[in-house]
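#struct-pred
JK: can someone run the complex with manganese (II) ion? inputs below
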Amino acid sequence: MKRPRILLTTASSPSHSGLDRIDSLTGLNYCEAIVQAGGLPLLASNLQPDLAESFLEGIDGLLLTGGADIDPYFYGQQPHAGLGKVDSERDEFELALYKAAKARNLPVLGVCRGIQLINVAEGGTLHQHLPALTNTIQHVQENRGSALAHELRLEPQSKLAKAVGSNKMRSNSFHHQAIDSLGAKLRVSAKTSDGIIEAVEGRSEQFVLAVQWHPEMSFKAHPEQHLPFQIFLEAVKTQTFGVKS
Ligand code: MN
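RT: done, structure tokens with the ligand placed:
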């Protein structure tokens, strides 16, 4: 079986080994989810944004992974007192990758920080510190990543709802930020009962799907959690090989 090549973004993290080294890291579970959906995961370090075009040569889909808060500089706001650690070099590199993927009409999947990055790239803004909002439900669960927490209300016409076969599903939740104003060319495909946006899809020809939760942590215990990866890889395969497999 030919496997389409999926580029995954990473976090730049000082090495815990004591060596003078910065590690490029992301979860092995994202890679396993991509493999299970029929793709081949390849990881990109956060380098100069002008390398984004070159990174996408020979790549069939882009997965923007989870990580730290996004620097509010990129959506024109000052840092809220509750803002977490940011990595503006990663932000700049991922914004360039998203822009280059868009120019190539490449399918894009965003997870957690990924949905926020896509929203900022499309001109939207974020809630910088969700605990500052009143009347929200819990979005940083205490249980393990594989445990499901809050319920999602899916937009009936969304790709997600069609794949799930229902207007409801549950998800885990580990996020400090969330979409505030929605970026152009995006539509909401899931919310929680408190109105927080939990998934978006693209409005244009390009396949864009992004989720605020972490299906890569829960798909082994809950098979329906693998659906975002399956929908993404179906779009990638259709575009790359011209057929649904
Ligand atoms: Mn949530």
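RT: quick notes.
The chain has a mean pLDDT of 96.
The pocket of manganese (II) ion is lined by residues 139, 150, 173, 175, 192, 198, 212-213 (CB under 6 Å).
JK: thanks, will look after standup
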